[in-house]
Write a structure and sequence with these properties.
This protein is of the alpha/beta class and about 240 residues long. It has helices spanning about 15-30, 50-55, 55-60, 85-100, 115-130, 190-195, 210-215, 220-225; strands at about 5-10, 35-40, 70, 75, 140-145, 170-175, 185-190, 195-205, 230-235. The protein is built from 8 helices and 9 strands. The longest helix has 17 residues, at about 15-30. It binds 6-phosphogluconic acid.
Length: about 240
């Protein structure tokens, strides 16, 4: 919830309203693009209600599944069958019911190391994008969903970690997590995440109040450093802002 003028902050009543608002913004991004659409999902618990909503007729029947590709902004380095796997959660909640299999782009976690997995995903993203350099006139993603951790991390970019300073790589391995679950991670970097038309943070619950207060003071935390070359929106509920 940074104070910067470029950040659009939207306050809604509760997590249910947050999911409806996020789904509306996702649909608007889809409607704004008549061609191939790329959406970068996020992990953690915050987006689960949104994913459940997207599986309901009201949304699923309106999504042009044959034109949308689904990516993930960060992954826990665990097998696809592990309940901690972020993309598997999204697959179970909605993607596997509707999306063509080759439109679902998980971060592979069967590589020997998180960094090998990161390099493989970077290759996949570059092939999809059709170039090895990001062009600000042609964002990689239409929409990037993000969450905020209690330490101000976003994706798997933790405070003080070298991954934050990365300017060339699109995806990197993160050997250790700062918070639970304490498993290695693979994460898109700030420049790759920034290459989007909209970056949408979902932040709900009273346990997020303290970190939102720090972000509002423009503290240099990863969630304040992750920005879009297009629009950035902080979608927060009343509890998260202490009401
Ligand atoms: C992950 C994430 C992470 C998450 C935040 C918020 O793999 O854990 O992608 O960045 O978005 O930690 O998590 P919650 O939504 O569970 O609060």
């Amino acid at each position: 919830m940074p104070s910067s003028d470029q950040i659009n902050r939207i306050v809604v009543a509760d997590p249910a309203a947050l999911a409806v608002t996020a789904a509306g913004r996702l649909m608007a991004r889809i409607e704004a693009n008549a061609g191939r659409i790329a959406i970068c999902l996020t992990g953690g618990s915050s987006p689960k209600q949104l994913y459940q909503l997207l599986a309901t007729d009201a949304y699923a029947k309106k999504i042009p599944w044959d034109r949308v590709h689904w990516f993930i902004g960060d992954e826990r380095f665990v097998s696809a069958s592990d309940p901690l796997n972020n993309m598997s959660t999204a697959r179970k909640l909605f993607l596997d019911h509707f999306a063509p299999k080759d439109h679902i782009h998980p971060i592979p976690t069967d590589a020997a190391t998180p960094d090998e997995s990161a390099l493989a995903y970077e290759r996949e993203l570059k092939t999809f994008y059709g170039a090895g350099d990001l062009d600000p006139a042609r964002p990689l993603f239409d929409l990037v969903l993000m969450g905020v951790g209690p330490d101000g991390h976003t994706a798997s970019l933790f405070p003080g970690y070298p991954a934050l300073a990365e300017t060339k790589r699109w995806v990197v391995g993160v050997p250790e997590a700062h918070v639970e679950p304490f498993v290695p991670r693979v994460t898109l970097t700030l420049p790759a995440l920034a290459s989007c038309r909209e970056m949408l943070f979902e932040v709900a619950g009273k346990e997020k109040h303290a970190i939102l207060a720090r972000l509002s003071k423009d503290e240099s935390l990863p969630a304040n450093r992750a920005r879009s070359i297009g629009e950035a929106v902080f979608l927060v509920d009343q509890a998260a802002i202490g009401k």
